[in-house]
Amino acid sequence: MPIPPPQPAGQFPSTLSRLRALGEQKPRLRFGYLAPRQAAGTLRLVLPFRRNWLLIAIVGAFLAIFAVPLFGVLGQMGPQDGDLFSMVFTLFHLFWALGWSVGVGMIALVFLALLLGREVVVVRPESILIRLELLGLGVGGEYQARGISNFRPAQPDGGAGTSWRGPHLAFDYYGIPVGFGSDLLGSRALEILNLVRGEVNLPAGDDFAHGGPTAAVAGPDEDIQDNLERDVQLAAPSEITALATGLADELSPLSTLALIIANLVPLAGVWLLGWDIGEIMLLYWAESGIIGFFNLLKMAVVGGWVTLFYGPFFVGHYGAFMAAHLLFVYTFFVHGVQAQGDIALSEVASYFIALWPALLALAVSHGISFLINFIGKREFAESTIQKQMAEPYSRIMIMHLTIIFGGFVVMGLGSSLPALLLLMVAKIGTDLRAHARQRK
Q1: DSSP characters over 126-139
Q2: Contacts from 104-110 at CB under 8 Å and sequence distance 24+?
Q3: 174 conformational bin, left if phi > 0, alpha if psi -120 to 50, beta if neither
């Protein structure tokens, strides 16, 4: 049985960090729904869950405070005029509300868990699952029986973070104490310990820490049911990976070539179709949206179900940025600051319809990079959900600064072709540096 390495003097790592340090032996994170269906071989116990009413009141107050701005913004989102400013105003508030609602939703989830949640232990011969459950949905850790030892009643320990539990139960998992239950005393605690130990196949020689195993007692009133939670552990997208990996070594230069060609398409539009700087700026604004779309896909690959929490925040923050930037780009480089009158949405749509070949080229370029590099070369294995959520911002900010300052240079020089060529070169160089940095 592997024992965690000793910690240097003066370091007191949390139980969670010590469990993570177990590597392949660490508890498996489980999230899902437990269906009320009985099955032999699985014991399900609903344990007492101590409620801190002061903490519940504090979290409820925070929930009310954070919910006021959200409902205030939603109340302002009524029917708007059919012009660009009204659309951007509505979209900005919509995206802001989406991002803010993630925080409100998390506080609400904590509030409901503290108020209505319960601790559930699901025991199988090969494992013990301890989870916090709310209305059938729950999240928790699954501990393999081969690493479990020393079942015992335990007393609250402020240094170990178990003071909120009061008298509770505990076991060691590869030498790391794990607590469960709360306000459990006397015969009730021993009854639960006896039930759990009777179902799980513990390593030979293990026994209760206090007085050995007790006599068998009748089981509690809780139902025995099958553990049907959905295992949503992140799995590599095998079918896509198998296809893309075989092509990655041969086609890896293709993503770089596609990036260069996609950036040269606007130059062809200037020569052949008479595009001006305003249309180029709109095109690069749209590329930001394409990058955001593929980054959301990357977050889903990296984070799995966790993207349900990170995804809306990213879409809200990124979308609000995009909405405000569209108004800026169109006003300064297409409509003109000195121009009078509202900007009709039909006018804005006509520009993007005319730009569809370049938009398609950019989408294909980023799609090739996603399949060949991120999936085929397994770049997702080196990323985290937090890192992936932040990844496009550095590239987008560099790109937008290049476009904005380059756009002013082009306007100052009368939108001449040489100045536009300089903008193209700067843009391609910026994209290639970012592209190469992501491939490392």
Answers
A1: TEEEEEEEETTEEE
A2: 104/63, 104/66, 104/67, 104/70, 106/309, 107/59, 107/62, 107/63, 107/66, 108/63, 109/134, 110/59
A3: left
- Among the residue ranges 253-257, 303-307, 341-345, the one predicted with the least confidence is 253-257
Q: What number of CA atoms fall less than 13 Å from residue 226's CA on the CB side?
A: 7
Indicate the helix (H) or strand (E) that contains 419: helix 417-439
- pLDDT confidence of residue 211: 39
Q: How far is it, in rounded angstroms, from Cα 211 to Cα 108?
A: 43
C-alpha pair distances (Å), 72 with each of 66, 86, 321: 11, 18, 20
CA distance 402 to 77: 34
Q: Which stretch of DSSP H or E encloses residue 173?
A: strand 168-173
Q: Which two tokens stand for residue 437?
A: 């940095």
Taking 80 as the threshold, does the pLDDT of residue 319 lie above it? yes
> What CA–CA distances, in Å, run from 328 to 170, 273, 325, 331, 341?
59, 24, 5, 5, 16
Residues 173, 143: contact at Cβ < 8 Å? yes
- SS3 of residue 174 by DSSP: coil
Highest mean pLDDT among 75-79, 178-182, 328-332, 415-419: 178-182
Q: Minimum mean pLDDT among 127-141, 191-205, 261-275, 289-303: which range?
A: 261-275
The top-scoring range by mean pLDDT among 72-81, 131-140, 221-230 is 131-140
DSSP, res 83:
B
Residue 199 to residue 303: CA distance in whole angstroms? 34
In the structure encoding, which two tokens stand for residue 39, read together? 């099955």
3-class DSSP state of 270: helix
Integer angstrom CA distances of residue 375 from 96, 245, 298, 379, 383: 31, 8, 9, 7, 12
Q: Which tokens is 124 given? A: 């199988």
Q: Are 167 and 160 in contact (CB under 8 A)?
A: no
Q: CB-hemisphere CA count at 13 Å for 45?
A: 24
Task: Give the integer Cα–Cα distance in Å for 181 and 74.
Answer: 41
CA 130, distance to chain mean position in Å, is 23
In percent, the amount of the chain with pLDDT more than 90 equals 16
